[in-house]
Amino acid sequence: MPGEVQTLGRSQWIVLAAAFLGWMFDGVEIGLFPLVARPALQELLRDMGDAEVGWWNGIIVACFLLGAAMGGLVFGWLGDRIGRVRGMVLAILTYSLFTGAGYWATEAWHLAVFRFIASLGMGGEWAVAVALVVECWPERHRPKLAGAIGSAANFGFLFIGIVAYLFPVRADSWRWLMLVGASPAVLAFLITLFVPESERWKAARQKAAALPGSASGGGIAASVVMLGGLALVAAVLYAAESVAGTGAFETWVRQVTSLTASGLTAEQHLAGLGAVLALLAAGVVGNLAGRQPLSRGLLPGLGIIAAGYALSGNPALWIPVTVMFVIGATTGTRSVREIFAPQLRWRTILAIVFSAIPLIGTWAAVSGWIPLWVEQMRQAQLIEEHLPGMDLTHVDKRELSTRLEEAKARLPAATWSEIGKQAARAKAGVQIILAVGAIIGCYVAAFLAGVWGRRPVYFLLCLFSLLSCAYLFQYLTLADPLFYPVCGFVCAVSAAFYGWLPLYLPELFPTRVRATGQGLSFNFGRILAAIGTLLMGRLVQMLGGNYADAGAKITLIYVLGMILIWFTPETKGKPLPD
Q1: Which of 250-259, 418-427, 454-463 has the lowest mean pLDDT?
Q2: Is 42 helix (H, G, I), strand (E, B) or coil?
Q3: What gap in Å lies between CA 517 and CA 475, rounded to an integer?
Q4: Do domains 1-206 and 354-578 have the same CATH topology?
Q5: For domain 354-578, which CATH number applies: 1.25.40, 3.30.460, 1.20.1250, 1.10.10?
Q6: Selection from 58, 53, 24 nearest residue 40 by Cα
Q7: What's the pLDDT tens digit per position in 326-375?
Q8: CA 396, 470, 483: angle at the middle one, nearest 5?
Q9: Where along the chain do its domains lie?
Q10: Digit-coded pLDDT (tens) for 52-95
Q11: Residue 474 pLDDT grade (very low, low, confident, very high; cuts 50, 70, 90)
């Protein structure tokens, strides 16, 4: 096959090192903001209180998830269009420079904008890095490569967890940590100098250029998916009062309309709905622009949006409009239309589902919530030491959150502050355990998938994730000797999917659209994970602050993966499609 690599040399090791470091620093950047969020927002909001801090933190997390999903699509398309190396360089520069730009933030919305732009690169780096590695290395090494790439981000999480354990971030140090986040830009410079381009991609580009016409068979399907997705976003925006918390939609409408009357009037509701429809329209216009050359489509559209922002000066409206326009433009490109064409449509949909299931499991139950659960239980242990008459170990889980608040009222402020510090250290400690488990799991899953096959291993990962999460959440507490070992095992199996996905997703798409297909599939799952996280939050509220019961329920998502995996092709022993 053209461009297929049979031998292993120095250039392959350089490619692997660049991709590994790029994804490892990506993991550092992803884990960086949770460390700085609270002290940064407290400073930027002038100590307005935890309610306002929590609301803005939710906005910034949503910006990250949406940006990462969009970045996988945008940089995947760039990787297929301008090359894997240049696409990876642009992705690393994006996430490093705009993370560092947070050093100069003076308003909370500045952080939201910087986080969104940085997350474009975080989502895009995975798409182009995986495509570059699998195309430059001999195919017999694919399982080992998938394990290495899958574990790279977890090394970044491990590093940032150790930093949090040793050097707690304070209000007077968070800006310097953001500036350190710009350091991977040096890696981008080195990649430009030393990393060779994929010969397989070059051959595919030459072959595609010689073919007449364009892949338009998936145009209708891609447009339907885009319109449906944007309609869902519009519905979620309007339903944000119940989903994201009281006041979310109201606050956004006030920022759009610049009105300050108490309660939303009928006129403000109409203005808010009009803004939502404007977002939907921006996506539709962007889809049409994406079908045109850059000089007649995307660039003039961005110029019009920039002019609108300059005239109105309303970032609450024009930033979302820009996001929707670019998303729509990307879905109108040839490569996106091709992955939704009849030949690849079913594979693309299944790839999205197979990516979303582990993302929901980890974000909404395991790595996203186990540290909070540990912090809560450690608080209970320490309270019992200071208030011997209060038994929190055997209290009903539904009542634990209420009892913690009662204890806070009875303890001196200094004692409660010390309990908080020790509980935070326990949270950082379990985060380190989760990261180590994830690193091991990624390697093991990729190796087993190379030996037993892709489908059986995915089924087993779903099965063991389901059973181990049920055991952890339903039967163990921090006082049990098995608690921390089981936490490590749970993260090993639930994060092992991230060693499986870099192996399987590239095998579903031909070279000319590989970065687009796997980038969209992997990162679109982040949007579904955001929905799962919101559901987890609502479950925790409904269950009276009971993280354990909520986690056990949300991990039932693995049952879906155990069923659907048998409807996808087995690719073990088959060459990458060209």
Answers
A1: 250-259
A2: helix
A3: 40
A4: yes
A5: 1.20.1250
A6: 53
A7: 777 777 778 888 888 888 999 999 999 999 899 888 876 676 667 767 87
A8: 75
A9: 1-206, 218-341, 354-578
A10: 665 676 677 767 877 888 888 889 888 998 999 999 999 999 99
A11: confident
Which residues have CB under 8 Å from 438's CB, separation 6+? 151, 154, 157, 367, 491, 492, 495, 496, 498
Closest CA to 80 of 131, 23, 22: 131
Q: Cβ(256)–Cβ(317) under 8 Å?
A: yes
Q: Phi, psi (5° rounding) for residue 572?
A: -60, 130
The token duo for 459 is 């089924």
Amino acid at 285: V
Residue 180 in tokens? 């350190």
Q: Which tokens is 325 given? A: 């326009």
Distance CA(186)–CA(477), nearest Å, equals 44
101: tokens are: 């730009």
CATH topology of domain 1-206: Growth Hormone; Chain: A; (1.20.1250)
Q: Distance between the two ends of the chain, CA-based, in angstroms?
A: 8
User: Could you tell me if 129 and 505 are in contact, meaning their C-beta atoms sit under 8 angstroms apart?
Assistant: no
Taking Cα atoms as reference points, which of 315, 362, 253 lies closest to residue 114? 315
